[in-house]
Structures are given as C-alpha cells and as structure tokens.
C-alpha cells in the first residue's frame, strides 16, 4: 500500500514532465528527424587527403569506413604496433570559437554578441555558432571538414513528441525540453539582432538561421567536440577549450579504448599539436576507439545520440523526499518515526549532508560504481539510528560509504539496505512500462528514435534491477554474519 502511494508520487513527477513536454511540442516547429548517417553533401572531399595537405599526419594504414550502426569510423587496414602515432593535427586545423576568421571583424563581434546570450551549460551552441558561420562561408578553409559532417543527428531534441514521452524518465525529458525551449527562444533573439546588422557584418553571410540549423550545429558540436587543456587559470585549474578536431572526431567511443588523445602544449601555444596514439596493437579492420568519458546514458543520449547497454557509469536519479523514504521503509517493514520527523541531531547531520535547508540538493542517485548515493545511504543509516553517540563516533565519509563494515551495526545496516531495495521497487513502478514490454517493442519494426527512447528507459530499469540484486546479495551476506555472530 505504502509502496503504491510512493510510486504514485514518483509517477506524478514523470507525468508532469511528460505532459509539459507534449504541450510545448505542439507549438514547436518540427526539427525533422532522419536516421540516415548520410553526410552534409553526397560526395564530400577526402578528409584524410585534406589533412595531409594541411601538414597533418594520418598513418598510412588508416582509413575511414562505415561502422554501422555507429556511422563512420576510423579503421586500421593492417597491423599497427602499440604506441604508434595514428593521427596528428597541426595547430590551425581544429575549429574553435575563440579564433576569429581573418578580415571579418564586424561579423565576429556580432557572433560574440550572440554567443554571450548562450548559458554556460550550453557551451556546444557557442562553438556551434562558429560552425554555422563557417558552413555559410563560401570557400571556408574548413569546408572539406564540414561537408563530411553528418546531415542529421540522433539526439533527442530531434525526436518526435511521442518519443520524448517514450523516454519515461523525467530528468532527461526536462533536459530535452530545456534545450528545445532554448533553441526556440534563441532563434527569435538571433533574428531580432540580425535584422539590424548590415550585410557585411552578418556572421552567416545573410543566410537564415533557425531552430533546425541551430539544433544541427549544437548537436554536431556536442557529439564531436573534445575539450582540450587551456592555460592554468589558478590553483592548478585549467580552462578547457572545446574544439572540433577533424578526423579525430571520426573515431567512435568505447569504455575499453585502444587509442588516446595526446595534447602537446597548451591550446594557445603556436606549437600545440593534437595526436591520437595507439594504446595497443591494432589488428586489420580494427576500429580506432577513444573513450569519450565516463558518462551516464543521460549524457550519451542527450549529447551524442546513443545509449550504452549495461553502462557502468549510468545512474537513476531520485528525489530525496522524507515522505518517500517513510513509505519505502514501511514497505520494507523497517519503519522509523524519524523519517517524517527527524530529531534535532539527525536534522543537523542531514543539513551537513546537504539534504536539509535552503541550499539543499535533493537529487540523489542509484547505480554507478558506488551503487547507492553516499548522501542517501548516510541519511538512511542516521535516520534509522536512535543512538546519537554511536552515530557521532563516525565521520560523514564513513557513514556515506558502502563498505564491508556496517558502521552503525548489522541491524541498522540491514534496515537501511532493505529501505533502498523498497526505493528501487518504487522507482521501477514509476515507469509506465515493464522491461518485458520494452523488450518486445524493441523486436518490432520501429523508428530509430523510438528504438533509442525504449533502449534508454529499459537500461534505466535494468540498472535498478541490478542495484536491487547487488543489495539483496549484500543483505544476505550481512544476515549470515548476524546469524553466526
Ligand atoms: C565523434 S562522432 C564519431 C564518428 C561518427 N560515427 C560519424 O559517423 O561521424 C560520435 C558519434 O558516433 C556515433 N558513436 C560513436 N561511438 C558510438 C558507440 N559506442 N555506440 C553508438 N554510436 C556511437 C554516435 O552517433 C556519436 O554521436
């Protein structure tokens, strides 16, 4: 009963996001979705030939090949020893925002003005503006690169409304909506600014820029740019600069890569060069694979347009909610009054965990290498304990860590873990479809956007099941220790 109530609460969050997304899509100009991995022009120039002509290095045993279903990729045509330099780009080849095109002062300052209106988190749009500028420039130095870019991207801003709903996961739907809303607003801002700009200062050569072209440019950058080290700004912190790296961005992703990017000198040096070096012996037909980062499927889908099955870095987001915890603990049969009314000392610890107070961050996660968000685990352990002194013997880090030790004793550990299992059940119930239904949808003849949306939500559910399985195993182990002690 309690689980059902809590499930309804989570469901409400999903329903809200889904209905708000559907409502806003009604007024949206359709950003057409096409699955084909076709390039911007039917027969683009030879990218490898262009790079060599520009003074870059491409190992003679490399070629670009179709790596269906990943699109194009870089492939070894023969054996290449580990440690070999595979690709090297000279300084002038990467496309970056902060290098103005020559003799385009007015246009560049207009571009800067537009870029200032982009929020930091959408940095890809900033470099996207530069990409659009070069795409619109007749005889652009980068045309051999740009013409080789995909014509369409599989990121969810291009999904039809039903497939955004099909994601069934409020945090991602929220991000997709945010990006779509931004593109719609930005189109209007750009139009009003460019209306008052003379043709010589027009950054896009007088061409129309709309949500569709902005979305294309933002997705081209989010799915292909690499952030390279800039100079140190302070305390050893570097300012990373995103850049588009021709040919290097034809390498696909793997968490078990066989090559890596090596940056020589900082991005502002005249001598900066960017290389790809083989990290293992390459065999014939082996694709060159880079690690794009230890990212969750939310990022992979939102920025790159793909989902990784059994992604070890994926997580499911939950909202830390005392009523939800109370319902879950009731369902687990380990209820405690503290969930709804924590004592003063418990409240103080919750504040230290940033789960209470005006600045509280209530987003907690399940999954990833730590399995249970440390703040959630510590909160459960503390709320299930009535012994202030026993709790205060431990520092927060110990309370936040799922280790061999049960810091507050076996009984509290078991109750905390059982509550997490109940939370998992609640989280699973909040998805409108079941894993088996998703599996059977994936066997049907469906569009690539439906396929991606269903894969995404199914992976989230499988992740929850995996967390439940691992925690149940832990509960069994702890119970065994308890019974033999
Ligand atoms: C940097 S580009 C790599 C080159 C790209 N395949 C192409 O055709 O231009 C990144 C894109 O390649 C595809 N991709 C790369 N790694 C992938 C993977 N492990 N699984 C699925 N798609 C992948 C995705 O479409 C992604 O947005």
First CA to last CA: what distance?
A: 35 Å
What's the gyration radius in Å? 26 Å
Within the largest sheet, what's the order of strands? 1-4-10-9
Order of helices and strands: HHEEEEEHHHHHHEEEEEEHEHHEHHHHHH
DSSP E strands, number = 13
Characterise the protein shown here.
One of its GO terms (biological process) is methylation. The structure is a single chain. By secondary structure, the protein is an alpha+beta fold. The chain has 2 domains: 2-25 and 312-484, Rubisco LSMT, substrate-binding domain (set domain protein methyltransferase, domain 2, Alpha-Beta Complex), CATH 3.90.1420.10; 47-294, set domain protein methyltransferase, domain 1. Helices cover 45% and strands 13% of the residues. The protein has 17 helices and 13 strands. The protein has helices at residues 2-26, 47-53, 105-115, 123-136, 143-146, 161-165, 170-195, 211-224, 297-304, 322-331, 344-352, 374-383, 388-392, 396-400, 410-429, 435-443, 448-484; strands spanning 57-58, 62-66, 72-76, 85-89, 95-96, 226-234, 237-244, 252-253, 259-264, 273-278, 289-290, 315-319, 363-367. Strand 9 and strand 10 form a beta hairpin. The longest helix has 37 residues, at 448-484. Residues 1-36 have low confidence and may be disordered. Bound molecules: S-adenosylmethionine.
């Amino acid at each position: 009963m309690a689980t059902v109530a809590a499930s309804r609460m989570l469901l409400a969050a999903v329903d809200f996001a889904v209905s708000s997304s559907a409502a806003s899509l009604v007024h949206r100009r359709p950003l057409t979705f096409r699955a084909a991995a076709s390039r911007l022009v039917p027969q683009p120039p030879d990218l490898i030939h262009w790079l060599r002509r520009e003074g870059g290095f491409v190992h003679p045993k490399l070629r670009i090949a179709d790596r269906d279903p990943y699109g194009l990729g870089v492939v070894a045509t023969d054996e290449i020893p580990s440690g070999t330099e595979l690709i090297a780009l000279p300084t002038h080849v990467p496309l970056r925002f902060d290098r103005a095109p020559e003799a385009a002062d007015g246009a560049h300052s207009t571009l800067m003005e537009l870029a200032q209106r982009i929020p930091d988190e959408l940095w890809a749009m900033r470099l996207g503006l530069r990409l659009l500028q070069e795409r619109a420039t007749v005889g652009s130095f980068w045309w051999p690169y740009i013409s080789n870019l995909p014509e369409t991207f599989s990121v969810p801003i291009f999904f039809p409304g039903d497939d955004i709903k099909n994601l069934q996961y409020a945090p991602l739907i929220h991000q997709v909506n945010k990006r779509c809303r931004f593109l719609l607003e930005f189109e209007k801002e750009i139009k009003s600014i460019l209306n008052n700009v003379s043709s010589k200062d027009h950054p896009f050569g007088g061409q129309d820029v709309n949500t569709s072209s902005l979305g294309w440019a933002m997705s081209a950058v989010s799915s292909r740019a690499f952030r390279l080290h800039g100079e140190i700004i302070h305390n050893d912190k570097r300012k990373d600069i995103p850049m588009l790296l021709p040919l290097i961005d034809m390498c696909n992703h793997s968490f078990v890569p066989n090559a890596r990017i090596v940056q020589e000198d900082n991005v502002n040096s005249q001598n900066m060069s960017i290389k790809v070096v083989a990290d293992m012996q390459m065999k014939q037909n082996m694709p060159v694979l880079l690690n794009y980062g230890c990212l969750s499927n939310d990022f992979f889908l939102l920025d790159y347009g793909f989902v990784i099955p059994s992604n070890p870095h994926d997580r499911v987001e939950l909202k830390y909610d005392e009523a939800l915890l109370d319902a879950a603990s009731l369902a687990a049969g380990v209820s405690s009054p503290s969930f709804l009314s924590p004592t003063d000392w418990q409240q103080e610890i919750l504040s230290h965990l940033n789960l209470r107070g005006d600045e509280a961050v209530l987003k907690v996660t399940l999954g990833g290498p730590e399995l249970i968000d440390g703040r959630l685990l510590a909160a459960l352990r503390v709320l299930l304990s009535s012994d202030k002194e026993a709790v205060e013997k431990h520092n927060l880090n110990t309370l936040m860590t799922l280790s061999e030790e049960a810091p507050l004793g076996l009984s509290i550990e078991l109750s905390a873990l059982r509550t997490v299992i109940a939370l998992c059940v609640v989280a699973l119930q909040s998805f409108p479809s079941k894993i088996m239904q998703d599996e059977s949808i994936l066997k049907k003849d469906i569009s690539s956007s439906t396929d991606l949306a269903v894969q995404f939500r199914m992976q989230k559910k499988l992740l929850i099941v995996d967390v439940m399985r691992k925690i149940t195993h832990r509960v069994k182990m702890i119970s065994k220790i308890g019974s033999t002690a």
